[in-house]
């Protein structure tokens, strides 16, 4: 829409500045909220991460500047390194491999199927996604618990949430998040010209060749953008893991958000927690920037 | 690939996605349901009756409604105001501002909650529902403004001219002309934010006391960790009551959000 054509010419001088201010006034409340509750806390954590502030005790009243000590501590902290590795495993396993491939597969399989088939499959996959994460965790708890459905069906007496907690949270997250990738790929595939794929078929290209040489290259922008978005969502995941395994047993499924919660909020080590928060924000920011580069933004 | 193979694969997908939730649905209407899926064919609404008490379900659901609706209302109002100049005027830093908003939507909120928590702690806001709602609104704003501006761009400026000629300022123009014309868009943004907060576990878990203010997302977790093994049928009934509004509202806005998934095409900024 071209709103510009109608906007009146901007006068110079004080009256022009006043008009500009009046025009920007509606942005005020949004800016105030975002500065107070988003930008403010981020900048504040940038400061706190270099101090030894705690929630209680003397360091809560008069914290002192400790330089990069919190970041140095992170690299020597076996629990942090463990959480970081688990976060990586969780993101790659559940998002990059799980949701992404499964979502693409479902979207590909749905092409040319009847409307009824497509809406049934879409319906159940999306239902898992719309469901609150606590309920999703509960579904998987009853499936994997010692007296749960899986053991009853297979006759195995395993306590899966203890013996394979990472597999459990990865499975649960694939189940919960695949819908997003499926929707992204359905939208992308609907824009792939059918003639191109048909022409390749006439030339004797098999299913896999058509997929690899024609379809995937045509939707590569969507693939990359989707990978960035699901990585960002998975990186910050807390509720699903916390309610399903609590990070346990021990710290066997304690990803960085859970470890950060433990240190900063349960043990009150705000400075150390803020340093971890900063690391996560920087990683998030990098992925977010790549995402911005990938999509085309029109004016 | 054979059609049959594709159909079978889709059937497997549908069954495996439905199975985990299906058991919750069945267990909710079975007396004495356990963790394992063993349908007995009995049917009773006893589980629903048992959980439909003030403390177990009604108060937490009211809390969820207050938090989600409060957040949605503030977000919609503030985003609609912010979208007006972004949609109507040529502003110098508009593009950078819109890109910054999009960038912000990618940041992990889980990380921001650490400084927010200590800020709340310091200013005595810990346990305050209004303060948490303002934080939730702020975190929903970047995406809400983005969506709202796109909906507003769809309302032709020409329609506002008549109001301008009559001497109406931007407030009247926004309330009387643009607002009503983009009512569906406003509803979509509101419902989107509402559903997002409805399922939000982390923020209320961290920022509210374990008290009377807790929304269903938190109390269902408490119930789950305390009685999950013994009263699974009741837990299932509670889950159904809590999940239903999210599903219904999603279905309502589903078709309006379809365009959001087109990542390969151009994003309107």
Helix content of chain B: over 70%
- Determine the CATH superfamily of the domain at 84-259 in chain A: MetI-like
Sheet of most strands of chain A: none
Protein structure class of chain A: mainly alpha
Give keywords.
heterodimer; A: about 300 residues; mainly alpha; MetI-like fold; 16 helices; disordered N terminus; B: about 270 residues; Multiple sugar transport system permease protein (chain A); transmembrane helix (chain A); transport (chain A); MetI-like (chain A)
What does this entry look like structurally?
Chain A: The chain crosses the membrane at residues 27-50, 84-109, 121-143, 163-185, 223-244, 270-292. Chain A: It comes from Nonomuraea endophytica. Chain A: Belongs to the binding-protein-dependent transport system permease family. Chain A: InterPro entries: MetI-like (IPR000515), MetI-like_sf (IPR035906). Chain A: One of its GO terms (cellular component) is plasma membrane. The complex is a heterodimer of chains A (299) and B (269). Helix content of chain A is 73%, strand content 1%. By secondary structure, chain A is an all-alpha fold. Chain A has a domain at 84-259: Orthogonal Bundle (MetI-like fold), CATH 1.10.3720.10. The longest helix of chain A has 33 residues, at 78-110. By secondary structure, chain B is mainly alpha-helical. Chain B folds into two domains: 1-44; 53-259, Orthogonal Bundle (MetI-like fold), CATH 1.10.3720. Chain B has twelve helices and one strand; from the N terminus they run ααααααααααααβ. The two termini of chain B are 40 Å apart. Chains A and B meet through helix 2, helix 5, helix 6, helix 7 and helix 8 of A and helix 1, helix 3, helix 4, helix 5 and helix 6 of B. Strand 1 (296-298) of chain A pairs parallel with strand 1 (266-268) of chain B, so a sheet runs across the interface.
